Sequence to fold (175 residues):
Amino acid sequence: MQKHLKQCYYFDGTGLSGRGLFDFLASRKGAKIVFIDEIDKLNKKEQTSLYNLMETGKVIYQTAKIQYNFLMPGLKVFATSNSIERLNKPLKSRFAIFRLPEYDYEEFQAIGIKLLSHQYKLPQQTAEYVIDAVWNKMNSRDVRDLLKIAKIVRKNDSPQDIEQLIEVQLKYCSR
Fold:
């Protein structure tokens, strides 16, 4: 979406500080849309500042070294989170919350083939082996499990090699 929308910016909440967010917005006061992945990783102060921005359209943020106080009317904030339990109630109340269902096999396979062939340059047949093994042997619907296995799979690994990797993963890795 960021590629196709103007004045739209993406942030990863796992490494985002309130100061970093508001430094960025201060230099782009025309921003229209902000995407925050893993919003639950923001600390309470940052959540409160973000809540105030969403409530009033005003950025109010202060540290020992810097103070922000400016308007951003009409800014839209979209966020993702694996859990909303860490969000404070006022911030949570500003979002329309959608819970996405688990992938079915066809969706998992389509996403997996795209990721494994583009990101890890695996041949489609190898990608399909990994997808099938993660889905059926690991009994996982988590794309992250696909990526963990893909990192250690070689392009010419056989289905037996992939099954062996899965068995080792199941036996020795904690989940």
User: Anything to note?
Assistant: The domain at 8-92 is CATH 3.40.50.300 (Rossmann fold). Strands lie at 8-12, 33-37, 58-62, 67-71, 76-79.
